[in-house]
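Here is one chain, start to finish.
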Amino acid sequence: MGFDLTRPLFLGAGAVALAAIIVIWLRLAPPLAPSRARASLGLRALIVVLLTGALAGFELQTAPSSQSLIVTADLSASVQNAQDTELATIQRILALRHGDNRAGVVAFGRDPQVELNASTDPQFSAFQSQPNAHYTDLASALQLAASILPGDTRRHVVLVSDGRSNLGDAVGEARLLRAEGVRVDTVAINVPVGAEVLVDSLSAPRSLAVGEKADAKAVIVSNTDTPATLRWYLDHTLINTVQLQLSAGETAVSQTVQPAQPGFHAVRVVIDPVIDTYAENNLGEALIQVVGPARVLLVEDTPGGAASLESALRSTGILSTAVSPAQLPRTSAELAAYSAVVLVNVPASSLGADAMALLQATTRDLGTGLVVIGGSDSYGPGGYAGTTLETALPVQMLLPQNMQKPPVAVMLVLESSESAQGDQVVRGAAEAVIDQLTPRDSVGVTNGEMGRVVVPLGPLADKAKVKKQIESMQLGDPPTYTPDLNAADEQLAKTTASLKHIIMLGDGDARDAYQPVVETIHAHGITVSTVAIGSDFGGAALMQAIAGWGHGRFYQSNSIQDVPQIFLKETNEGLKPWIVEGNITPRLSSLAEALPGVPLDSFPALAGYVATTPRAAADVVLKSPQGDPLLATWQYGVGRVVAWTSDAQGRWTSDLLRWPSANLFFGDLVRYSLPQLGDPALQVETQVQGDHTHLLVTAPASSGSVVSVSAVTPDLSDASMVLSSTGPGRFEGDLRTDQVGSYLLHVSDSVGGAVKHTNTIGLVVPYSPEYRNLGTDTATLSAVARAGGGVLLTDLGSVFDLPVPPVRAVQPIAELLLVLAILLFPIDVALRRLVFRAEDLPVWREALKRAPGPALPAEATVTRLRERVSDVRAARGTKPPPE
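Its structure:
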């Protein structure tokens, strides 16, 4: 035990004050008795000492005997098969805690996470955190564990792992912790090493010319003799199968490949041994870029929807392939086989969130061109609002403020929720739709009674009357929705509204062949959205399919109480006047760099377009007479995006498609979006190092050159960086590649903000590095323990009894000193101001007695007593005695 202080300046000031008090007392002794004067001097000196100690920050130092122990648990992929054993080990360590000792848990893979802070009552039944399991960083786990150890106890860390670290310097970190007074012990998790075969590497040329062949070479590593089947794939096509007899050691195999089309192609090798432990490491993959003419991917929602556009591109020398949204590539490597993607009147629901995120990432980070062709199922009507696809577009799904709202027509196709209270909610939701529309809009309602139209479609001139009809209607539970859908179709056929829509609510238990019915309705220019009520999975799937065939939106209601809010959402999103129709003459709004060869002075009139609002950075090339964008472009990341808000199928562009320059117009739209071809002057070398890849880029030497890299990662996150110049025309940097999968890197060399050279390369992390070196590495665990002043534990029973370095715990006592000084101050005052003598004791005793109350006069007391007696006798009826 000892003392320490934090503000020594106050200690000097206190010494000066104490000396001054003594000098003053010696020079000017107080007029008190000698004993009282000495007591007063002592009290004052003590008060000054106490105040000085409080202000100087006096602290009490102790050496606590209790310890805090943090268990660091390895959750990397290499110990997945032993996690039950690991959990039992940790629970046993925590159960051994006794006395005032504390215990906690940290889990780690690539990154450590706190599972349980150190406490005297650690409750731990299962792992809650999910760190990146593809790597093991023992050093960062030790660092985090030490950082959360409380400083008022001895500090102890126990590392539970297989010892297979592929990141960080665990021995160095343990040595630093030992120097800081933290003991580090280790516990080995037994990961059995069985027969193992893995693909150690797969190499292939990074780029090829069209028609060129290449040899891909794979190295297979085995620790046993076993027969195996080796399969080679080019993209998703099996190109060769080889039977091998593997021997312990390395086996090299090769395969000739010839990718046909320009773009990126994946070469994969898969080994299937008869004897093996882990299948995760039986894969090797490499990316080859075939350099050649650009290829464009056309995405059409209906078969033949992109036929006219495909013909136009073919006539201008652009190669294209048409696919449905379901056939759109789902990885960046597959999509990178195309230089641009063209969406032809495709709704967001057909693409899905993952595909839209992929389009956004490849455009932003790889420079893949993106062209969006309009139509009744695109932009606002297609549900682009709020999606990642809208983020990439030069236009927003906002209606122009000056746009006059044309009338819309909507039919509500309803059925019973099979409860009176639920049906009342449904009727209220229908009335809420009425409130959102204008008197110029038209509404009709069917009630699920085999096509019965309760409210005929008509203008909302009298909303109160329509609401009364809805309130009084009964809802049925039909065996089929076909009569109600056909009735809604017939009602909507009578109106000339530009937007015709059906909102259908039901539980989906009425099974029937609805696809031809709904597709016929959509062919009449009517969209269908559905709201599924109830929890039946099959019913919800049917309602979702109906929305898909009707090119509308699907909503799943978890509670009948959600229905009104869903109806309001659908009314706001689905019934907006997105479509503008009429005789529209496009007007030139910019220099038209996107249309270099198109005679815009003879551009034909359009019959319609989808209304949008341009972004501030967009270049609006063509606009409508109202100022709405018809053709807009912008730079999004490293890619170019083109938005054409009219269509390419003839609904609004029949005159345009007959125009002699139509093919040139659509060809220029797509060609403008194409990225620059890879420049051989920009050479890129990569080397995987742990969880990152070192990049070395060689570029033509020029003053002010800046080389930047944007990458599409397996999870489509945005990864970009600027490389450091390490010499003339030499640039280097480290890119984080800690995910398993394909990475595509777009490298650009810019001078003064102008791009001079670009190139795109691919690299693959085929499987987690955790599966390269398997088994328990007791040598590493022993080295970590020795560096941390501990041992490799084989007996857990003594884990809390091991000698842990002592620590000095500090207890601040400034507040206690201040309280004592305050309590002593009135005593000092009393010594100097109050005089106590023996003869004064009777006076003090008398003064402390309680003062008696005032005495009543005797006469008054007797009078009051007589009155009370008279009152009692009067009550009893007796006479008073004579006086």
